[in-house]
Please model this.
Amino acid sequence: MAYEIDYIPVGDGEKSGDAIALRFGNLSGPREQQSIVVIDGGFKESGELLVDHIKNYYSTDYVDLVVSTHPDADHASGLYIVLEKLSVGQLAMHRPWEHADDIKNFFKDGRITASGLEDRLEKSLQYASDLEALANKKKIPIVEPFQGIKGFNDAVHILGPSQEYYENLLAVFRSTPEPKSVFGVFAPVQKATEEVVRRIQDFLHIDLLNDDDDTTSGENNTSTVMLFNLDGHKLLFTGDAGKTALLNAISYAESLGVSLADLVFLDVPHHGSKRNISSKILKKIKAGTAFVSASKDSPKHPAKKVTNGLQKHGARVFVTRGAALLHHNGGNMRGWGAATAESFHSIVEE
Ligand SMILES: [Zn+2]
Model:
């Protein structure tokens, strides 16, 4: 089956984000023989670019499925434009406030009520609640992307998060009250004081990514992890999922006998942050091609240690850095030139 995966550039400086469009099926046939999925929309400007891209290159204004991997602004805010300007068949997004009743007992303060929690979540996750309101207004059905859900004749499979893991993570969202100590394991990340970046040497035969501590945020770990299997071509999308979320997705896939070590394509989590990839993960998740969505002048995205690690495990790595990227199988190059793969860095951040 032919497919095109398009990364739209997002942000500048500190602000990376994700805006991805995918088209698969009979790409030279009529629209009915193709499926179109949008995964995150970056900020408002990248949302506009996504809309133009779909109209210009996919020649349609209908998107079958829009996925909001998690409620952070750099992924969710641009989707508002997509929902506003295109017609959309279905929206996949988590609705944190719908789980308030299930999680109200997770907190130290016994007076926390479901409706109090619902309010706090809705106010703090404005981009997600705006998206939900617009979908409701436009009568776009919403599904919560939990582990096990499949679509497009099973070509798309949600590997994570499970509903149980998701609800545990909600208890450590920035906007929820202090959880009982039992959730200490999900303790939220304290913003690190300005780290001194030390640099070290890297070599092809050594492994620097051996740290399994998960220090990404609860919000990031709720990211939808989604596997496409297009006639045996496996493509994995990860949002900003952290190590725990990825390991959960890997063990779920393994329990079904599905290997993630033979991917054609990997969407590198969290803009290539060194917080989200470990050596254990790179042994289980291997891809021929890996894309990183990182802003043009990002000081930390992607971490050189991460792009090196992916290369050590056999991937050719490409980074957006302000330019659109296309990976395709039987698609159309549209006259675009070939992108330059990331080279191996001999000096990396520690
Ligand atoms: Zn992000």
